[in-house]
Design a protein that fits this description.
The chain crosses the membrane at residues 12-34, 66-87, 99-123, 129-148, 258-280. By secondary structure, the protein is mainly alpha-helical. 72% of the residues lie in helices and 0% in strands. The two termini are 45 Å apart.
């Protein structure tokens, strides 16, 4: 076979594989959205779920998902940022750094159900936090931290060494160079990684079944005292999220409209993850233009 013919065959094969992947994804998304969007309404998005009657919504579960996401990112982002800066800017290339990187890679490949069981034994049982928002947020931090750290490290690594040398030439210390030159240049990539990891956390279910619980007690949205058990901000209350709610309905739901609620909740989950991905792209472009004056 000539080089020109083999090139054409390889191109056709690659285009076929890419088309199949796109077709499968489009079919999956289309099925979920076509099946679920007709069930969406303001009442569905804001009313509480009903266990035995039709007409329930996903208001509490939707709030719990966003609340857990915010708590998780508040805990994990500073740790990931510090770890990424250390690994890329300060750590020497020796066996200790190699062990840390290997540990991060192993942790990032752990199944989420294993993280959930570890969180159950440590936070729920040993630390006596019970099935709570806090237990779920810490478990999701363990789940999210390796990927977020690698994302931050990769963003810093993409900045050319020329900028570090320019900072040193201006008499800046290493920390000043990192804080005033490297980090601002890496912010667009870091933000993109953060938003994408937020979408992954938002759709997680297995780790939360064992830590945040499978119940959603009635909340008083007029009570914002975080120490009151009925307050939406209480971090020690059980919190069934949207992904866990979908799993629960499909496994043991007995309400008459279980299929409709599951389809609507799945559509909301997919739409939220799509928004996270589109937001990551838009925010990355905007920050890149503003921080680098690119056109």
């Amino acid at each position: 076979m000539s080089a020109k013919t083999s090139n054409k065959v390889a191109t056709i094969v690659l285009y076929t594989i890419a088309s199949l992947v796109i077709l499968l994804l489009a079919a999956l998304l289309g099925f979920i959205l076509i099946d679920g969007v007709p069930h969406l309404s303001w009442h569905f998005l804001t009313s509480p779920a009903k266990a035995f009657q039709a007409g329930g919504g996903i208001g509490v579960q939707l709030f719990n998902s966003f609340y857990l996401l915010i708590l998780t990112m508040v805990i994990s982002l500073p740790i990931a940022l510090g770890a990424g800066i250390y690994l890329n800017e300060y750590a020497k290339q020796n066996w200790f750094t190699a062990v840390i990187r290997t540990a991060i890679e192993i942790l990032s490949s752990l199944p989420s159900v294993v993280v959930g069981l570890f969180g159950f034994l440590l936070f729920v049982v040993q630390f006596k936090l019970g099935f709570s928002v806090l237990s779920g947020a810490i478990a999701l931090t363990l789940f999210n931290l390796p990927l977020l750290t690698r994302s931050v490290e990769g963003s810093l690594k993409s900045i050319p060494d020329l900028q570090r040398e320019a900072g040193a030439a201006l008499g800046l210390s290493k920390w000043e160079t990192v804080g005033h030159v490297i980090l601002p240049a890496a912010v667009p990539s870091i933000v993109t990684g953060v938003v994408l990891s937020a979408g992954r956390v938002f759709g997680e279910a297995a780790a939360l079944i064992y830590t945040a619980g499978q119940s959603a007690p009635a909340l008083n949205f007029g009570n914002w005292n975080p120490f009151d058990i009925t307050s939406p901000l209480n971090p020690l209350r059980p919190a069934e999220t949207l992904a866990v709610h979908i799993w629960k309905i499909n496994s043991e739901g007995i309400m008459p409209d279980a299929a409709a609620v599951s389809a609507g909740a799945s559509a909301v989950l997919v739409i939220a993850v799509l928004i996270f991905n589109l937001l990551a792209r838009w925010l990355g472009k905007v920050l890149f233009k503003r921080l680098t004056a690119a056109r």
